[in-house]
Amino acid sequence: xxxxxxxVRSRRKASTVAVLCAATALLALAGCGGEGSSASxxxxxxxxxxxxxxTITVWVDADRQAAAKAFQTENPDTKIKIVTYDGSANGxxxxxxxxxxxxxxxxxxPDVVFSSQNNDAAWASQKSGGKQAFAAVxxxxxxxxxxxxxxxxxxxxxxxxxxxxxxxxxxxxxxxLWYDKSLLEQxxxxxxxxxxxxxxxxxxxxxxxPGYIIGTAGDAWTPEVFMWASKCQAxxxxxxxxxxxxxxxxxxxxxxxxLDALRxxxxxxxxxxxxxxxxxxxSGKVLMMPGPAWYAGAIFNNPQSLNMSxxxxxxxxxxxxxxxxxxxxxxxxxxxxxxxxxxxxxxxxEKFVQFVTTADEYQVDVxxxxxxxxxxxxxxxxxxxxxxxYATSLQPVETAxxxxxxxxxxxxxxxxAIWAKTMTPGITGGKSIVDLLPTWQKAIENQAxxxxxxxx
Length: 456
Prior knowledge:
alpha+beta; 17 strands; 38% helix
């Protein structure tokens, strides 16, 4: 593999270098594999000539500026240039598009990039148009094994392609069951312990307390909350360019059937939690809501949203389906940090990425989301509980972090975009989700094939 930064040389010069390498067996010193690069590299990828005193360029979204500033405060001797971009939010794909431009130019790549998406390793780990993969391999010595092993079990799955790690997770967005403990006790309801009990509770609420809800199904991440937690094999990625889609399975149908029933009785409305309609109709009427860890701050403890009072919000671990020994859950977001394989200061880039994903100064003291790094996550949980806002222990959030089902993968395309385009219009139009499953299957297959996946 030859890096895109390699300068094209004459055949005579290349031949001379090759002979020199063979004669001396000092391949790296002779520059074999490209001028200013190492063909194999100590870390498993072609490396640019290192300049350990050089400034690293770090791309972050607006929310991660605090991470970069925390690093600067703790590491004043490391020179960094901070560039703010959209973080590929809402599937803009800006990260990939911009790296492709730099590939064509042969220069300009940032040293570190934050992405709000979990599917970027799928393309960043691969050559593009014959060009060197953007993402540096992290688990062949660049990042210490001790650091990697301390990430929550399964949290690096989105970063792992063909057994190699290409990014570090910033935070997790594991789905749990949020609920209003005071309201649940007022109504005399027991907390459900299975999805079947959850549906039965919804049927009771519809009859006994119409207008109250136990969840929503109007956001693009609905399948990541309900379908993923049901082990619906709609997004299984067994290999870099392989995808398995089976939306006609029992696991898919049971979740779809439950959503159909609760949508029809009004307890799981098809409305986005970030709309004025949601706030107008359901403020004070959310009995419970399955959703990601970040719902706590973004929806419940937010003056601009539900603004639930302290002492009311409780949380329960993910629900299992009846007959299953252990529950699994889905994941809705959580960011990723990449180091560029083109970086001329890998030491500083690694120092930055390790800091922003593991250091208490950011992950515990500043970060709003649940850290992917387990030691920081424990401290983060303790800090949240010390606020006295929650009505219960937050241990279920920690439990859910290692329960994200690994049968839902991370291809280069967005499942949320497919659901929003294919399913949401039909659901809001009154169609059954069960009846729409074949449509969802076909849409996933078409998108996968466009992206070069073998579908089965």
